Predict the structure.
Amino acid sequence: MSVPTQEFEDMRETVQIGEYSLLSAGDDMSDGAECAVLDTNVVIDMEHFYFTQTSEEKRQSLKDLLLYLVKDRVEPSIGFALLESCHQWRSGFDENNFQRKRYVAETLFQWDEDVIERQFANRHPPVNRDRKWRDRPYRTRMDPLAYGFDGTISDCVQFAIHYASLLKIMLLAQKMKTDNRLNLLAEYVSWVNTQLGSLSAYELQVAVDMLVGSNSRSEQVRKLTKYSGNESIDDLSHKAWNAAWDCYFMSVTDAYETGLEYETGMPRRKTVLVTRNIDPVWLRRKAALSDIESERYALPIPKIECTLDLRKGITDSEVLSILNTVHEMQEVRQSVNPSNTQMMRYIQRFEGEAGLNQSAFVDTPLR
């Protein structure tokens, strides 16, 4: 693993549509996008626009985004946003919330340019003109399976991996001292290689910046995770859950872009993540999936790029000697290759070993 240059970060510029950033896994967005994965905050903005009064700035941003999707024939993907918005930490599936947000998003996506212009020119919420919603709000009830999940967050293993990784990083951060930071980073990488068996560029970057990064990098990661250092184990679990969604949405975008079908079930196509959250923008510029290797392995394997901005007294070579084991241990991680059920069991066992009495994913006790 080499240290990318500043050009690596500069290439990953974002396109702005009002308040929304469009993030691509690739370096070149000049050809446009075929698919847009909408972050949860975008779907929430749609819901607010549909049912309530919103600010002129928010209305204009949402209008411009909808016009962009229509004019450029970009297919929106809302299933992942529904997955997040309808599950809370240690809570079950909120089907009414799912149906409400699903109804609003699909209604707005049916509008052409003329309808978009008329609806946004009207100062009253669209729901006031929606007889179908007033009469029978859930007549067109949609099975959540149509969006790739069955209403059980624990079945979404990729998200669970992001969650467990961030929880591990914050647990290690609580042990930080002046002279043990490199050892903690090595412990995290070893855990990924030999225990979890799954690697994400984004959590790897978070681990580097949290444990051995400069003050500015460490501060950015703390903003992403909301980590203060004084949390209880339940607080850490809750914060890992919330931050994992940012990493999950970027990984989903990478999977669409590079054709990692085992993650999304979808063919390869030019994809952007649409968000008004600043944290994914920052993290995407620091780390990314740089390539795919498929010749040596049964499944396509992501190659990882991270950037280094380290604390004084810690050298690039010391950190790279640890990070290089990520590639060296690729075959070990492949040999672990647990089933989804086995992975969830391991993650819940890991939660119990960390001191949690309840899993983030279920309402039943771990002990």
Summary: Confidence is low (pLDDT under 50) at residues 4-11, 292-300. The two ends are 40 Å apart (CA to CA). The longest strand covers residues 287-293.
